[in-house]
Amino acid sequence: MQAFTYHAPRSVNEAVELLASTDGKSVLLAGGTDVLVQLRENLRHADHVIDIKQIPELTQLKTTADGGLSLGSAVTCSQLLHSEPAAPYVALLDAAQIIGGWQIQSRATIGGNLCNSSPAADSVPALLALGAEVEYATPTGTQTCCVSEFCTGPGKNVMNGQGLLVSLKLLPLGPTSGSAYERFIPRYEMDIAVASAGAYIELADDGTIATARIALGAVGPKAILATQPADALIGQTPSDELIEDVARQAATLATPINDMRGTIEFRQQLTYVLVKRTLHTALLRAAGQVVSHHPR
Amino acid sequence: MPGKAPAKMAISTTINGQNYDFLCEPRQSLLEVLRDSLQLTGAKEGCNNGNCGACTVLLDGEPVNSCIVLAVEVQGRELTTIEGIANRGELHPIQQCFLEGAALQCGICTPGFIVAAKALLDKKPNPSEEEIRFALAGNLCRCTGYDKIVRSVQAASERIQAGSTPKQNPQPNQTNQQQAQQQQ
Ligand SMILES: Cc1cc2nc3c(=O)[nH]c(=O)nc-3n(C[C@H](O)[C@H](O)[C@H](O)COP(=O)(O)OP(=O)(O)OC[C@H]3O[C@@H](n4cnc5c(N)ncnc54)[C@H](O)[C@@H]3O)c2cc1C
Ligand code: FES
Ligand code: FES
């Protein structure tokens, strides 16, 4: 690895000042599972590496006053998987437990997964389905935006290398709600999503769908919030036909590429299947059933 | 324009219960420092990019790939490497079961598997086969086909639960296998 200076600031302000004063020659380091590999393979260069893990507020995970979840940007997958306040946010846990293996999960952060801004990042469709908002600090102040507006293309996001992601805020969950995230990979573990989907469903007292969000991963330059198909669920009583229909609509929004991992047609078909499955799982979970695809 | 090489940093850490102070460059990985500076060569370099798990060590009890941890990041923290798994020359039950179960061929992956398996059994002494396979998904082996590894972790789990670690059953001429058989 090329030489650099290491910094471990203790506050958000200190980190942002360092970022600004090093004039684009620095990178932020959270768990390092993307960035250290990129530096070693000369895909990125940095004169300064700014480790953000010693900023106390970034490692906090707590329930907010309105009953939502606040997740510091340096919270690791492992921390998330073992935390009580995060337990109801099942779609995010589905994602966190398949990001790499255990060694990766001990280090990899949700914030880093989002900031790396890969179209195949597993946490992003889950965050979209759960209605997350992000807060980031820049030299000119703190900004917020919906997670759906955060990534702008492969490896790119609104911060443009000038900001520090501080936290993610997830909406409060409805009393009768469920969520799910699933991806397709050609093996059981340790691979990058060929296609993925996240879903959130909230039921009204009469059993009809009150709120729904569907997100698609790895089938476009960034994860896609499938708003129209999800809206078609609102006010309806859940049924297999309804879910099939909505999944088919959602698959038309996928704009995947052809590559060695899958053809366009294959990825569209996967999107249909994965949306169907995650909607089913979200509904089962809303009904109080424990559905798990991996030992947790 | 290459600038002046950044100064080395002084790092203090605990490795296998012992204090270590060392100097390192910020760009050096923990694996590099363990192997090249501290002569702890048990952790292996397989891929050097986080995929194979051969370099697994425990950082404050959690398994991490030491090839994608900077050595400067372990300041003030606690590490366990494969060198710290045996107890005063007595093999840990996982190590013993790997030997007895022929869970290795070339052996490059073995330290990583044993350290990760130790982390698993410390947290969950009686894991299911699925839990073992899931916990070891970040460790790759090109030789064994995994089955003997999984069986050996299962055997170690049984042995630890039966309490037949050599320390608790100090009969000098018995092998662990004999002890285990006697307990069944
Ligand atoms: C073997 C292996 C397997 C993997 N498997 C998966 C997988 O299955 N699914 C998946 O989605 N990913 C996977 N990854 C990729 C990676 O582990 C994840 O993207 C991880 O979540 C990144 O988090 P990190 O904390 O390690 O980020 P880092 O590497 O520390 O940072 C990633 C990027 O985000 C920036 N950054 C980090 N934090 C902030 C912040 N607070 N503010 C601003 N910028 C920030 C960094 O500068 C860098 O550009 C894998 C990686 C490896 C090595
Ligand atoms: S050498 Fe570290 S994971 Fe392969
Ligand atoms: S024994 Fe050779 S890689 Fe596992």
Can you tell me about this structure?
- The complex is a heterodimer of chains A (296) and B (184).
- Chain A is α+β, with helices and mostly antiparallel strands and 296 residues long.
- Chain A has 3 domains: 5-51, Uridine Diphospho-n-acetylenolpyruvylglucosamine Reductase, domain 2, CATH 3.30.43; 59-170, Uridine Diphospho-n-acetylenolpyruvylglucosamine Reductase, domain 3; 177-287, Enolase-like, domain 1 (2-Layer Sandwich), CATH 3.30.390.50.
- Chain A is built from 11 helices and 14 strands.
- Chain A has helices spanning 12-21, 35-40, 77-81, 90-96, 102-105, 110-116, 123-129, 147-150, 227-231, 240-251, 264-286, and strands spanning 5-7, 26-29, 48-51, 61-63, 69-72, 132-138, 141-146, 151-153, 156-157, 164-170, 177-184, 195-203, 209-217, 224-225.
- In chain A, strands 4-5-10-6-7 form a 5-stranded antiparallel β-sheet.
- In chain A, strand 8 (151-153) and strand 9 (156-157) form a beta hairpin.
- Chain A is globular, with a radius of gyration of 19 Å.
- Chain A starts with a strand and ends in a 10-residue tail after the last helix.
- The relative contact order of chain A is 0.12.
- Chain B is of the alpha+beta class.
- Chain B folds into 2 domains: 9-84, Ubiquitin-like (UB roll), CATH 3.10.20; 93-162, [2Fe-2S]-binding domain (DNA polymerase, domain 1, Orthogonal Bundle).
- Chain B contains 6 helices and 5 strands; from the N terminus they run E-E-H-E-E-E-H-H-H-H-H.
- In chain B, strands 2-1-5-3-4 form a 5-stranded mixed β-sheet, with helices on both faces.
- In chain B, a hairpin with a 2-residue loop joins strand 3 and strand 4 (62-65).
- In chain B, helix 2 (93-100) packs across helix 5 (147-161).
- The radius of gyration of chain B is 18 Å and the shape is globular.
- Chain B starts with 8 loop residues before the first strand and ends with a helix.
- At the A-B interface, helix 2 and helix 5 of A face strand 4 and helix 4 of B.
- Bound molecules: flavin-adenine dinucleotide (FAD) and FE2/S2 (inorganic) cluster (FES) (2 copies).
- Residues 45-48, 50-55, 65, 67 of chain B line the site of one FE2/S2 (inorganic) cluster.
- Chain B: One of its GO terms (molecular function) is 2 iron, 2 sulfur cluster binding.
